[in-house]
Amino acid sequence: MNRRTALRTFLYIAGGTLVLPACFRESGKASIDLTNLSISEDDEHLLAEVTETLIPATDTPGGKELLLHLFVLKMVDDCHTPEEQKQFTKGLSAFSVWSKQELGTGFTIADANSRTELLGKIGESTDEDLKQFFSITKRRTTQGYLNSQYVMTNLVKYELVPGRYNGYAPA
């Protein structure tokens, strides 16, 4: 056996052993690391569907494609107070239960029109955790969309400061 071939084979095996654990993700946990929130995989999917309902995919990418649910989770985890984080997680679980009661099925299974109508009914609810959850989710989803790479590169026309000179502008 050639020494170079043996070394190459050893490096392939070593590289595969390092990469292989990254291919398997523990089921039941969120796909990003959060320090202050404990979100399950089902909660993450539910939040993805909520962001997709808030910003649906048309000729532009929607909430799921832009991974806005991950942005919402990261912002809540990093930038909100512990009380707001508790309200968010309570509101997320309350939203899951409430949507099953209102729709008869899960939020992720319902059609787009039913989802939109359900999100419109949140204001009528008496549950403060549910309202706070939706308020945070809506605000952070909008922020994530407006600051996404797609919007900043394709939709916003940026011009460096001070901009171009316009000699005809009124004084």
Automatic annotation (TrEMBL):
Domain of life, per lineage: Bacteria
InterPro entries xrefs: Gluconate_2DH_su3 (IPR027056)
Pfam family, one: Gluconate_2-dh3
Protein name per its UniProtKB record: Gluconate 2-dehydrogenase subunit 3
